[in-house]
């Protein structure tokens, strides 16, 4: 099917803009020109809205199989499409865990049946995410999984992580890590700091994250592996990653929108929409994360979209699960509260949502150019609205950003040449 997009404003590498038409045929961009006159099955007037490469999120939870009451591959990818994401990478904390060839193949089959955007699945580093026995990394890597991770739990022993890194390095596949030393978590549910004291909640020390990153970068150096750190949250973690990069170690890292936009002071009451792991840290940590992102210590942004049923999140801070949703709000929140406040540029934001994750993981996406895969996100940068969790396509409504004002919105998402989300553009 051919699609002709009229009156796009393309954001270029030099941060300039140009008005173009884009012709899409056979899942690829066929032509980009100031004006294209051609009869196609579908012609969409984009009304001078801004076109970006489809956003890429390398850290989301789709919950299927086994957690369909929280999210499914279909609902999660519909949420991704609404947020402008055309490539998402699904974490393996499902039931069954994708830790063998059979379960990985079943996951690929289900993705092919129901996903509305591209899903690149992770496989588990260890059997059942238990940290006790390695999955058959080499055989599973041959099936085309995105990378290996035990996200949700840290690998607790250096021996297990070193062996995993050596196996992954042998097949040129990254190891992606949720960094958390369980021996110093102390049953915490919030950051160990002012809010944990005020609310009398057990706190999670910053050290539980940073100490494991420090261990792992040295292991990655020894194994000659690509080591990627999930959802960095502390200033000490930023310092360790910065030093490791200076030493030439192949370490990369991500940060979430919520850790950039919120800190522990946002927790006023026992509201579990503010419970996530890693937790919201101090204001100093928040500032260090943005600095690290700007100076390149942290490579890009990922949402850690983690949907839960409302009944689960209603159990209070002590008993409810960690995690919030983020796919449908990420761009709009970051644009409104970082770009419009001139803390970052629009080009930086687009790079961190598209170009940098593609570069880090060697993905052939993140481009609006002729012959490229037709993944495009069209955004109305002037649309004012208010976040309403009841309008989410995700099954998860667990967000701390409900009722926040936003100043932009994705209005058209095209994944592999197919319209997967569209709403009224407004001139």
Structure description:
This protein has 427 residues and is of the alpha/beta class. The protein folds into two domains: 99 residues, Urease, subunit C, domain 1 (Roll); 307 residues, Metal-dependent hydrolases (TIM Barrel, Alpha-Beta Barrel), CATH 3.20.20.140. It is 30% helix and 21% strand. The protein contains 13 helices and 20 strands. Strands 1, 2, 3, 4, 5, 16, 19 and 20 form an eight-stranded mixed β-sheet that branches. Strand 19 and strand 20 form a beta hairpin. The longest helix has 17 residues. It is globular.
Short description:
The chain is α/β, with parallel strands linked by helices and 427 residues long.
List the helices and strands and how they pair.
Layout: E1 3-11, E2 17-25, E3 28-33, E4 42-45, E5 50-53, E6 55-60, H1 73-82, E7 85-90, H2 101-114, E8 118-121, H3 137-141, E9 148-149, H4 158-170, E10 175-177, E11 190-191, H5 194-199, E12 203-204, H6 207-223, E13 227-229, H7 235-246, E14 251-255, H8 257-261, H9 283-294, E15 300-301, H10 310-313, H11 316-319, H12 330-339, H13 346-360, E16 376-380, E17 385-386, E18 405-406, E19 409-415, E20 418-422
């Amino acid at each position: 099917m051919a699609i002709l997009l009229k009156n796009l404003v393309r954001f270029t590498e030099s941060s300039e803009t140009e008005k173009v038409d884009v012709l899409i045929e056979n899942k690829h961009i066929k032509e980009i020109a100031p004006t294209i006159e051609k009869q196609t099955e579908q012609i969409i007037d984009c009304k001078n809205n801004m076109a970006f490469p489809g956003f890429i999120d390398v850290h989301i939870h789709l919950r299927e199989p086994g957690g369909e009451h929280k999210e499914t591959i279909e609902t999660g990818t519909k949420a991704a499409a609404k947020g402008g994401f055309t490539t998402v990478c699904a974490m393996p904390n499902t039931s069954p865990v994708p830790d063998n060839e059979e379960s990985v193949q079943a996951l690929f089959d289900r993705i092919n049946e129901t996903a509305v955007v591209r899903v690149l699945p992770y496989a588990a580093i260890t059997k059942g995410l238990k940290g006790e026995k390695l999955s058959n990394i080499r055989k599973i890597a041959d099936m085309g999984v995105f990378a290996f991770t035990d996200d949700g739990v840290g690998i607790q022993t250096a021996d297990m992580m070193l062996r995993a890194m050596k196996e992954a390095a042998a097949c040129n596949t990254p190891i992606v890590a949720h960094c958390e030393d369980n021996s110093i978590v102390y049953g915490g549910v919030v950051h160990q700091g002012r809010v944990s004291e005020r609310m009398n909640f057990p706190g999670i020390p910053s050290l539980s994250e940073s100490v494991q990153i420090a261990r792992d970068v040295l292991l990655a150096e020894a194994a000659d592996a690509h080591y990627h750190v999930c959802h960095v949250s502390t200033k000490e973690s930023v310092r360790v990653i910065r030093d490791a990069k200076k030493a030439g170690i192949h370490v990369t890292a991500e940060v979430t929108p919520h850790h950039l936009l919120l800190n522990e002071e946002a927790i006023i009451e026992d509201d579990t929409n503010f419970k996530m792991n890693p937790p919201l840290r101090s204001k100093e940590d928040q500032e260090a994360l943005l600095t690290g992102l700007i100076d390149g210590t942290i490579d890009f942004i990922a949402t850690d979209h983690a949907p839960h049923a409302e009944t689960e999140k209603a159990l209070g801070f002590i008993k409810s699960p960690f995690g919030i949703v983020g796919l449908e709000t990420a761009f709009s929140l970051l644009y409104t509260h970082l770009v419009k406040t001139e803390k970052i540029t629009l080009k930086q934001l687009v790079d961190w949502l598209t170009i940098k994750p593609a570069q880090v993981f060697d993905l052939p996406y993140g481009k609006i150019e002729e012959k490229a895969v037709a993944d495009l996100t069209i955004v109305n940068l002037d649309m004012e609205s208010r976040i309403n969790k009841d309008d989410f396509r995700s099954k998860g409504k667990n967000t701390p950003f409900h009722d926040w004002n936003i100043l932009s919105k994705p209005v058209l998402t095209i994944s592999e040449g197919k319209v997967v989300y569209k709403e009224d553009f407004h001139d």
